[in-house]
Amino acid sequence: MRTTVDLSDELVRAAKIRAAERGETLKVLFERALRAEVGVEVTRRRHSFPLVRPARAGELVDPSQSDIEEALYGDDDRKAAGFA
């Protein structure tokens, strides 16, 4: 879910620094902080392998770099946060 929150410049700067120190995105930092504040546990999805299946048996899958980035980061704003 996307939402808009008005935060002070000082707080955002501190959050960006903390996220960079931990090698994580602002999204991950904010989610972790909110979960800690409201007491919501992290739920992890279980995946079965392979995660990518060819459309037809025997067909090779050749993802582009942008396909891989989309699969890894989705709507995550890593580029805006300076991590990509």
Give helix % range: 40-55%
Order of helices and strands: HHH
Low-confidence segments, given as residue ranges, are none
* Average pLDDT number: 78
Structural class by helix and strand composition: mainly alpha
List keywords for this structure.
mainly alpha, elongated, 0% strand
Polypeptide structure, described:
The chain is mainly α and 84 residues long. The chain has a domain at 1-48. It contains three helices and no strands. The two termini are 22 Å apart. The mean pLDDT is 78.
Short characterization:
This protein is an all-alpha fold and 84 residues long. It contains 3 helices and no strands. The mean pLDDT is 78.
List the helices and strands and how they pair.
Elements lengths: L8 H14 L3 H13 L26 H9 L11
